[in-house]
Amino acid sequence: MISALRGTVLRVSGSSAVIEVGGVGFDVTLTPAHTLSLRVGHEASVVTSLIVREDSLSLFGFVDHDSLDLFTLLTGVTGVGPKSAMGVLAELSPSQIAIAVAQEDDAVFRKVSGIGPKTAKLIVLSLAGKVAVYAAAPAATKEITGTVRDDVLAALIGLGWNEKAAEAGLDAVLLHASDNETASVQALLRLALTELGPRNPGGSR
């Protein structure tokens, strides 16, 4: 299994790049935005997913593990193949995907080429409860816990909790969380989601 590549960029096109590693050129499918960040002759590092078919081997590359994890979740949805999953990641950030799923907003997925109404609804249903942690920015360590708290609170509100309930749950977590857990937006959000439990339909939990 090829799980990551680091090497020199030999070629870049609209949605793929060839990266040379140890004298071997790997053709990797990327999002258009990702390819724009690469430069021929420069080093690149990508995390990858190798999709094996009877008649082909296809390598898909990502900027980080969050994007790779979402790609894996998306391709697990009936009717969503690797190309459609890359289409979703090309149009939506992990945070936008998480919020759309939490709000049961399948319209954003219908805007992606190749995804129809039925598949869009399946994406929302299949990813429910699996992507909430991506509603906040990826785990960037911050020195000021207050700033982390504000970011997590905003993410919880965006996921459907009212401000009062979100603050109460977050403050409860902060009473017993370790320094490492409160230094990271993503780590603190995970704890808050566990504390709050499933969001009720009215978002008033």
UniProtKB/TrEMBL annotation:
Keyword set, alphabetical order: ATP-binding, Cytoplasm, DNA damage, DNA recombination, DNA repair, DNA-binding, Helicase, Hydrolase, Nucleotide-binding
Keyword Coiled coil: no
SMART domains xref list: HhH1
Membrane spanning residue stretches: none
Positions of the UniProt region annotated as Domain III: 148-205
Source species, domain of life: Bacteria
SUPFAM superfamilies: DNA helicase RuvA subunit, C-terminal domain, Nucleic acid-binding proteins, RuvA domain 2-like
Domain notes: Has three domains with a flexible linker between the domains II and III and assumes an 'L' shape. Domain III is highly mobile and contacts RuvB.
Family label: Belongs to the RuvA family.
Quaternary structure annotation from Swiss-Prot or TrEMBL: Homotetramer. Forms an RuvA(8)-RuvB(12)-Holliday junction (HJ) complex. HJ DNA is sandwiched between 2 RuvA tetramers; dsDNA enters through RuvA and exits via RuvB. An RuvB hexamer assembles on each DNA strand where it exits the tetramer. Each RuvB hexamer is contacted by two RuvA subunits (via domain III) on 2 adjacent RuvB subunits; this complex drives branch migration. In the full resolvosome a probable DNA-RuvA(4)-RuvB(12)-RuvC(2) complex forms which resolves the HJ.
Alphabetized HAMAP family for the sequence: DNA_HJ_migration_RuvA
Function: The RuvA-RuvB-RuvC complex processes Holliday junction (HJ) DNA during genetic recombination and DNA repair, while the RuvA-RuvB complex plays an important role in the rescue of blocked DNA replication forks via replication fork reversal (RFR). RuvA specifically binds to HJ cruciform DNA, conferring on it an open structure. The RuvB hexamer acts as an ATP-dependent pump, pulling dsDNA into and through the RuvAB complex. HJ branch migration allows RuvC to scan DNA until it finds its consensus sequence, where it cleaves and resolves the cruciform DNA.
Protein name: Holliday junction branch migration complex subunit RuvA
Species assigned in the record: Agreia bicolorata
Gene: ruvA
